[in-house]
Amino acid sequence: MPNIDCMVTDVGAIMNLPELNGSRRLERLGVRVFSLCEFTETE
Q1: Which residue of 19, 25, 26, 37 could cross-link 31, Cys pair, CB 3.0 to 4.6 Å?
Q2: What is the pLDDT of residue 1?
């Protein structure tokens, strides 16, 4: 997070919503993403 002069290396969430592409965007920035479960629109 360059605006607050720190480096985020890992994030955690209860639920990942892959259709929103948030975790994919973070992973492209080199951030490790952890979630307890994943929910897709088709489920």
Answers
A1: 26
A2: 56
1-43 pLDDT, tens per residue? Answer: 557 888 889 999 999 999 999 999 999 999 999 999 999 888 6
What does pTM read for this prediction? 0.73
- Unique residue bearing structure tokens 């919503």: 17
Alpha carbons 25 and 29: distance in angstroms, whole number: 7
Cβ neighbours, 10 Å, residue 18: 13
Half-sphere exposure of residue 29: CA atoms within 13 angstroms, side-chain side: 15
Going from the C-alpha of 15 to that of each of 25, 29, 42, the distances in angstroms are 16, 20, 15
Is 29 strand, coil or helix? coil
